Amino acid sequence: MAIVVRLDVMLAERKVKSKDLAAHIGITEANLSLLKSGKVKGVRFATLEAICDYLDCQPGDILGYEKHE
Questions:
Q1: Domain total for the chain?
Q2: Tens-digit pLDDT profile for the chain (69 aa)?
Q3: CATH code: domain of residue 52
């Protein structure tokens, strides 16, 4: 997939545990794990907004695009 999820990097940089983020934004740790691994087909803007608010970051810090040849 051309969309790369860097949520694990942001969590590490902010020294935030996955379970704390999941609890704050109101999703399960299992769903957060799927999101971190890029195994989801989409993410709600409300969820993305909550993640960015908690981690004090921009959506571009979490999501990236890598063009495949």
A1: 1
A2: 689 999 999 999 999 999 999 999 999 999 999 999 989 989 999 999 999 999 999 999 999 999 887
A3: 1.10.260.40
